[in-house]
Amino acid sequence: MSFEDVFGTAPDGSWRAPGRVNLIGEHTDYNDGVVLPIALPNQIVVTASKRADGRVAVSSAGHQRVIEFAIDELAPRSVDDWAAYPAGAAWVLREAGYPIGGANLLFESDLPSGAGLSSSAALLCATQIALLGLIDVEVEPAEVAKLAQRAENQYVGAPVGLMDQTASMCCTAGHALAFDIRSGSLDQIPFDPEADGLTLLVVDVKAPHRHADGEYAARRKSCEHAAAQLGVPALRSIAYDDLDAALTRLDDEVDRRRVRHVVTEIKRTEDAIALMKAGRLRDVGPLFTASHVSLRDDFEVTVPELDVAVDTALAAGAIGARMTGGGFGGCIIALVPTADAGAVLGAIEKAFAEQGFTAPTALAATPSNGASRIN
């Protein structure tokens, strides 16, 4: 249904925010680490019009149901289901002092659901820039990202880090975004696999996210517990060369594995950035694979579908492969010679059929621009 069909009025404009794939640097963002995402072509689009009654009405393409709430009555978790995200976006803008008004919002998305490609961050960011755009207020992209994180943390109640929102707002086409969480610095790193005869294959393994929310919170709690025991504000403070000494000071074996992943993953991410700056993208492949092994063995966030996809991609000719995102389902990425991309995907499809898994799907992974107004 069109915007006019849903709301009975013409829209004032449309805004978009993309999903993301993290090349490397998994579960390091909430440890003050370094991450390296790209924005995807896949995105959430919000078409919007102003309202004069202080209420927000939201709907999604293909559904006739409209959910309404009053901006002045919003409080954390006062709206549930998917509408909690646009409600959270409105709540955090109001709390931050932005004079947003009522709005009609229609959402469309080509981000696959449950794939771990940050649809929640894209939804929050798209809503925020639409509500701000309706009142002609410009806010720096990095600040919008922080507000989106606050909405997801405090309104929705998800203890997420800052990577997804920053990627959705701040990435640029043809680049990966080196984001140092501790310093806040953003560095656009040229990323053009095609120029090196490579393809970044993104494969949605279609695995249900098993216990993802509770397990994510448990991983974060373990990292925070270990940091407190080591007397540091975050695990970023543990130097790679000091890792072995730090591990001997931890009482719990699970905490030791979590710390080992985070510290080595930060080092792998820093090494990947240096290699990409030097034009040595092919040499990044083994770092992808080492990241997956660490996520599988030390952080324990993979599932059989992810492991089979990675192992099969490597056996079929990928120069590096890893799970991407929070884990427990979602996607893998594989850096593959372009001439072999079809064969690698075919091998994964065959392996999944043999294992009785749901058939996987592949996505385009062209590094794209962050959020913007469309018209």
From TrEMBL:
A cellular component annotation (GO) from this entry: cytosol
Keyword Transferase applies: yes
Domain Galactokinase N-terminal: 2-50
Domain GHMP kinase C-terminal, residue spans: 273-352
EC number: 2.7.1.6
InterPro entries linked to this entry: Galactokinase (IPR000705), Galactokinase_CS (IPR019741), GalKase_N (IPR019539), GHMP_kinase_C_dom (IPR013750), GHMP_kinase_C_sf (IPR036554), GHMP_kinase_N_dom (IPR006204), GHMP_knse_ATP-bd_CS (IPR006203), Mevalonate/galactokinase (IPR006206)
Limits of the GHMP kinase N-terminal domain: 85-170
NCBIfam families: gal_kin
Family the entry assigns: Belongs to the GHMP kinase family. GalK subfamily.
Protein name: Galactokinase
Originating species: Kribbella sandramycini
Lineage start: Bacteria, Bacillati, Actinomycetota, Actinomycetes, Propionibacteriales
